[in-house]
Amino acid sequence: MKNVATKLMMICALALAVGMFLAAPALAKDKIVVGFSQIGAESAWRVANTESITSEAAKRPNIELKFSDAQQKQENQIKAIRNFIAQGVDVIAFSPVVETGWTPVLKEAKRAGIPVILSDRAVDTEDDTLWVTFMGSDFVEEGRRSAKWLAENYDRLKNADKSSDVINVVELQGTVGSAPAIDRKTGFEEVMKNYPQFKVIKSQSGDFTRSKGKEVMEAFLKAEGAKIDVLYAHNDDMAIGAIQAIEEFGLKPGKDIIIVSIDAVRGAFEAMIEGKLNCTVECSPLLGPQLFDAVEDLMAGKTLPKRIVTNEGVFPQEVAAKELPNRKY
Ligand code: AHR
């Protein structure tokens, strides 16, 4: 008798547990579940971008964020997106580490009826119905702005006459195959075509990291030495790494070598105040509010614009001290 009672109690407990398990997804349905695949933490910019996304999600009680860090590997991002599809999230958002190779997984998301938002970086796919909107900076314009600033300010900074001299530029590119690396190179070259005195004598990827930026700049200096007049870095982190290499080589960054880079992170403002960096072109990582506004609009049945471009500025050394207290990243 005792045995029968125990068995009955066990069956009831099991039924209760199964019931709770089955009820859980139903409760979660009150929330919009968003799967976000982040590239990694390669730069101060990326860390600020992650913070903007996670803190904004935490502020919105109707949002449940599933966040995944891909450690700069496309295969990890594809795995994460497949996991989100298997979990049946409401929206997938991601910042693609490189431009190509996304079509199959985006088709899987489409077949599952899950809308995809591109955040920060674009993908290169023939079918643009595979994603609903792309929000983030205009990287080509950032390259143009860097080149314009350089063309307009080089002579003043170096007491030179650009119409007669050859000006040797070295370029630290971002991650190979990534949208910002491709576009920032394109935009820079587009403007520089009008200023043939500027010659890019070396151009190599520093993978958007400080350590790689330093390493590649060391190699540039070993090969070209004091011949280098300008450094154009696709992000501030690589420029900051390169500044260290320049100092160790015995040259003065910001004076012997004019430096322009992109992002406008706090570290760049500090380097400008010390006179070691000449200009930073803004690329804002604060995409969290925009992202979750778009998610909510989408879930409310609204049509999103295909492209949402971030407004950004250019900050030369002269304004650094005044601007630093206003910087949010
Ligand atoms: O996609 C934006 C770029 O990625 C930022 O410029 C860079 O710092 C980051 O790693």
Could you characterize what this model shows?
Residues 35-302 form the Periplasmic binding protein domain. Residues 16-28 have low confidence and may be disordered. The protein contains eleven helices and twelve strands. The protein has two domains: 32-136 and 285-311, Rossmann fold, CATH 3.40.50.2300; 139-283, Rossmann fold (3-Layer(aba) Sandwich). Strand 9 (258-263), helix 9 (266-273) and strand 10 form a beta-alpha-beta unit. It is an alpha/beta fold and 329 residues long. Alpha-L-arabinofuranose is lined by residues 42-43, 45-46, 120-121, 180, 208, 235, 237, 262-263, 283. Alpha-L-arabinofuranose binds at residues 42-43, 45-46, 120-121, 180, 208, 235, 237, 262-263, 283.
List the helices and strands and how they pair.
Blueprint: H1 2-28, E1 32-38, H2 44-59, E2 63-69, H3 74-87, E3 91-94, H4 103-111, E4 116-119, E5 133-136, H5 139-158, E6 167-173, H6 179-192, E7 198-205, H7 210-224, E8 230-233, H8 236-249, E9 258-263, H9 266-273, E10 279-282, H10 288-299, E11 307-309, E12 314-316, H11 320-323
Parallel strand pairs: 1-2, 1-3, 3-4, 4-5, 5-11, 6-7, 6-8, 8-9, 9-10
Antiparallel strand pairs: 10-12
Helix pairs in contact: 2-10, 5-6, 7-8
Bound molecules: alpha-L-arabinofuranose.
Strand content: 15-25%
Q: How many helices in DSSP terms?
A: 11
Give the structural class: alpha/beta
Bound heterogens, unique: alpha-L-arabinofuranose
The residue ranges in which pLDDT falls below 50 over 5 or more consecutive positions are 16-28
Let me know the largest β-sheet: 6 strands, parallel
Q: According to CATH, what is the class of the largest domain?
A: Alpha Beta
Q: Give the proportion of residues in helices.
A: 40-55%
- CATH homology superfamily name of the largest domain: Response regulator
CATH topology of the largest domain: Rossmann fold
